Amino acid sequence: MSVVDIKAPPEFDTLEVLAAAVAIFEFNKGYYKTSENTIVDNETTNIRYANREILRSQFLVDYYSGSKKPPLVKVYDRHREEAERIREYTKKEIFNVLANQESYNTNLYEIINRPYVTGNNFGFVASAPFYFKYSKEKDFYKEKIKDLQSQYVAAKDTKVYLDEFEIIRNTKSNNYPGYIIQGICEGNLYLFFTKYDSWADRTPGTIVHIEGKVKDHVMEQGTIPMTKLNRVYERIQTQNELRANSNSDLFGQRQVTDSGGDSLQAYIELNCKSEPFDSDGNDLQPTQ
Predict the structure, then answer these.
(1) Distances (CA, A) of 145 to 185, 204, 248
(2) pTM, whole model, 2 decimals?
(3) Most buried residue, 46, 64, 208, 277, by CB count within 10 Å?
(4) Residues 110, 8, 72, CA angle at the centre, nearest 5°?
(5) 124 in helix, strand or coil?
């Protein structure tokens, strides 16, 4: 495989390029700065192309000979609408621009708000959907904990049942394969680690019913009491529903029955039994 620069139109409509970047972010299920090989079920090797490479290929900025080349991603109106929202969101950086505080955010603002961009700007444009997602989630988190009067919950090793647990942050761990989940239940802040990809799509604002054991008590941002959990399970039903319907404790997993009498598994184990972080919460304290 070879990549050769070819002469392409020098400028592209910024919103159309940004819409393509949104579609690629959706296609790739995230943002990848570099391409990497992936192994699929039949043990064949595929290339997961970097978002920037797909974007450059999409607009013929780069040319790929041979059969292996970045995919062509379809762009829909919903992607164009999201591009408009991203552009509008970046305008909050205008005060930093006026203050000459150069950063990734201000550079992105300047590029995204041009009417046209060149291929040299595609790296910034390709990363814009990730910037938007991360920034919106950060805004959501800050708003949720702004006036939170959290308290520590229960003693260590105590089992807790948390109905209406609202996820307020879901961060992929930098040091271990897994996810760092923070959430609020009845005004108290919690945190746990899970290695399971089933949590990957649980976005901030998602409500779940969980149970777990108290592992430790730590401070978030040095001021907010936060209860750390382990052995976390997601429950299909609330604890009150389980008390009303449970008729067995088969093999350690509670079962409930529906009106037809069929057995339904009420618990789904989603978390490992030991977490790769210490009692001070290292690695689990998300970067502020």
Answers:
(1) 12, 13, 39
(2) 0.70
(3) 277
(4) 85
(5) helix
User: Which token pair is 235?
Assistant: 């429950």
Coil vs helix vs strand at 53: helix
Please state the φ and ψ torsions of residue 251, each to the nearest 5 degrees.
55, 35
Which among 173, 162, 170, 255 is positioned nearest to 213, based on CA atoms?
162
Q: Read off the pLDDT of residues 40-52 as tens digits, 9 standing for 90 and up.
A: 666 667 888 999 9
How many residues are present in the chain? Answer: 288
Q: What is the pLDDT of residues 116-160, one digit of tens each?
A: 999 999 999 999 999 999 999 999 999 999 999 999 999 999 999
Our CA dihedral for 14, 112, 170, 174, rounded to 10 degrees, sits at: 100
Sign, Cα dihedral of 212, 213, 214, 216: negative
Q: Which of 165, 134, 178 is nearest to 287 (CA)?
A: 134
Residue boundaries of the structural domains of the chain: 3-143, 159-269
Measured distance CA(38)–CA(121) in Å, rounded = 27
Tokens standing for residue 201: 């799509």
Mapping DSSP to helix (H, G, I), strand (E, B) and coil, where does residue 18 land?
Answer: helix
First-to-last C-alpha distance (Å) of the chain = 41
What would the two tokens of residue 266 be? 């009420």
